Amino acid sequence: MSSPPPTVESWLSDEQSRSLANDVLDGLTKPFKELSPKHLYDARGSELFELICGLPEYYPTRTELAILRDRATAVVADTAAAELVELGAGAADKARLLLDAMHEAGTLRRYVPLDVSESVVAVAATTLADAYPGLGVHGVVGDFERHLEHVGRRDDAPRLVALLGGTIGNFPPGTRRSILRKIAGLLAPGDHLLLGTDLVKDPRVIEAAYNDSQGVTAAFNRNLLHVLNRELDADFEPEAFDHVAFYDRRHEWIEMRLRAVRPCSVLIAGLDLRVEFAAGEELRTEISAKFTRPRVGADLAAAGLALEQWHTDADGLFALAVAGRASKDGR
User: How many domains does one find in the chain?
Assistant: First the structure.
């Protein structure tokens, strides 16, 4: 049985460049400068992140994959999932494990990858449509913070929405609960969310994952300045900024920053904006929150979801949470 041709819809057009411009105008004029980590992932940034995922210090990707290899069959059996919606598709390794389990269970119908990169969505759509006979694939090019309403529903087949890789930790508590509420809007009774979360652990392990010995994460972080130079006609000198990553014990999250090694006056010509950096001044480019089971449960409950399953590795590095819509009594 051959698969129907995959479809891909884009909802970005020039909206993504406007989003970048708005974020830069807002974030670089604050007393404490910051930008959203989503702007790290242009084509080069995505390539660098794929390299990071294979580094010995970077445990999240391989640990999450190991949990999926061990538990995907059980997750699919317990949820009866027939449709996989993958938010932030990236490489297809994790999706394949879930699709394999659905295929083996005889429930597989549809795959919906959503990502801001059109090339990522197109490759995932074509590759996986070819790999699973009869699979319907509908790719969505968009930002899951703004374009979830375009994740359409074909039928009442049980849906599994996957947000993996610890991505939810890139948002501060209020924002991540808002995002979880939006995701909950995709779930009908009987549907489930599969959420990947990095866990609180020895800070030395966490900090090593963001300060690799080969300097790949430093290049990934500085690549944001190349993005600004290219997209907004800025004149950043990336090598004038040091990569900084540290674990904030009070908030229990990692922060990535770029620190000016000397005073810098940067013109962002596309915005007619000049930004001054004092020597030692920092620009925050990412937070990555680390979780405990109670924190995940509380965030899910605030979004109207109930934690049903908790899968982790033997060392307690990473967890996959399965959640469904909470009943009216909150359980």
Answer: 2
Decide if pLDDT at 15 tops 60: no
3-state DSSP assignment of residue 7: strand
Same domain? For 68 and 148 the reply is yes
Whether residues 215 and 273 fall in one domain? yes
Spatial distance between the Cα atoms of 104 and 114, rounded to a whole number of angstroms: 24
List pLDDT tens digits, range 257-276.
999 999 999 999 999 999 99
Residue 263's domain comprises 33-56+204-289
Helix (H) or strand (E) holding 24: helix 15-27
Cα–Cα distance measured from residue 91 to residue 278, given in angstroms and rounded to the nearest whole number? 39
Angle between helices 15-27 and 216-232 (to 10 degrees): 110
Which of 120, 124, 114 has its CA nearest to residue 149? 114
With 0-12 / 13-18 / 19 or more C-beta atoms within 10 angstroms meaning exposed / middle / buried, residue 193 is buried
